Amino acid sequence: MAEAVISMKEFISHHRGLAEKDFLQKFPLPFLVVPGDKETVLPRKGGSSPKPIRAPLQTMKMSIEDLEETLPPSFRKVLLDKAMVFPLETRENAHKLKVGRAAESDLILEDPEVSLHHATIYWKETPPSVYYLKDHHSTNGTYYNGVAIPPEEEIELEDECTLEFGLNRLFIFYYPQTFYRCVNLS
Asked: Which of 21, 31, 70, 109 has the largest count of CB atoms under 10 Å?
């Protein structure tokens, strides 16, 4: 059962400035972000995202461009005015998050292109450090970084990867530590 969907601007206004320890205690699981415009987010081709590098500042003043360069590349493409945030939560002691149209899904996507029992995001240890995705023979497929994943195949999720459920639902998957940095630098 995902916490209520919240706009990116509202989430940032409520949670910016929290100490990292407090943020991670409140949000121990990843986030799914709807970037606001499907056309602005292009899937990465394999491998992890490059670490942003910023030239040393010559003065104590920072420009908006300096700040943007410190954000993860995927977050720079998020439209803050239109983006929506899904802080993930599961039922007590569950190690999975069910995605689909069914009422018993943890993340319900009311879209005819999404199957009733579309996919599962899960982890094998507590606290989780690695997350996996599995498609459950969905009608319109599940896509990881723009590539359809075979049904029932376990895919390890990378921080900042793109996920698509069906044909219209694009999300960016953020580990809690990365999303904390995004919230406090945006």
From this structure: 31
**Rounded CA gap, 168 and 178, in Å?**
25
Which token pair is 62? 């920072």
Give 59-98 pLDDT, tens digit per residue. Answer: 334 344 444 455 556 666 677 778 888 888 776 767 898 9
Which strands form 142-144's sheet, in the order they lie side by side?
6-7, 84-87, 31-34, 169-174, 161-165, 142-144, 147-148
Backbone φ, ψ for residue 181 (5° rounding): -65, -40
Residue at token pair 């942003």: 52
pTM of the model: 0.76
CA-based Rg of the chain, rounded to a whole angstrom? 17
Neighbours of 33 (CB within 10 A): 25
